[in-house]
Amino acid sequence: xxxxxxxxxxxxxxxxxxxxxxxxxxxxxxxxxxxxxxxxxxxxxxxxxxxxxxxxxxxxxxxxxxxxxxxxxxxxxxxxxxxxxxxxxxxxxxxxxxxxxxxxxxxxxxxxxxxxxxxxxxxxxxxxxxxxxxxxxxxxxxxxxxxxxxxxxxxxxxxxxxxxxxxxxxxxxxxxxxxxxxxxxxxxxxxxxxxxxxxxxxxxxxxxxxx
Length: 211
Ligand code: AMP
Fold this sequence. Notes:
Layout: E1 2-6, H1 13-24, E2 27-30, H2 31-41, H3 44-54, H4 61-73, E3 79-82, H5 88-101, E4 107-112, H6 115-123, E5 125-128, E6 134-136, E7 154-155, H7 162-185, E8 189-193, H8 198-209
Parallel strand pairs: 1-3, 1-4, 2-3, 4-8
Antiparallel strand pairs: 5-6, 5-7
Helix pairs in contact: 1-8, 2-3, 4-5
Adenosine monophosphate binds next to helix 2 and helix 3.
């Protein structure tokens, strides 16, 4: 199965992708996580990406397309793309790549939540610096800023501050939202209401995908 998880920042794509990758034994490919790993390594790419991410902007298409080419070409089983494509140019390049590799997109899950709720979620989001588990300080019981899964330190993403969140939402509307129409025209888009609990959203995705 080859799934694209699509939607504005903060709708829960990362959380759902992790759960889906376990249930269906799919590789979770998160371009945001790949970039954050490069930042942690202080690689050349990481240094470049850091400035862009902290400003709430998008990393240039040619860099992202190269990353995706390398990762996707090395996969053997199915996968979930989380955070890619984010522009029409990326979506077109992905089609070309999948065509070359004879990979078929099964479904594009478009998760949506209203904007006020997105901002509330992003402002309250913490993630584990070791295992990546995502927490919400309004919902989850957090003690000593420690991950309940692995004990790692919980941190707030640099780009989850109100000023940068507003910029990310604008860029989403200008550059990423048109990708929704792109997949709708190809009859691949499936709408998921992301406003419920993590379990409710997961259940509606599983209902769409089948057991
Ligand atoms: P995410 O974790 O998916 O919210 O991604 C965090 C940040 O990484 C984004 O705000 C962008 O700056 C950058 N990024 C991730 N994926 C892409 C992409 N496909 N194209 C451009 N920039 C990206």
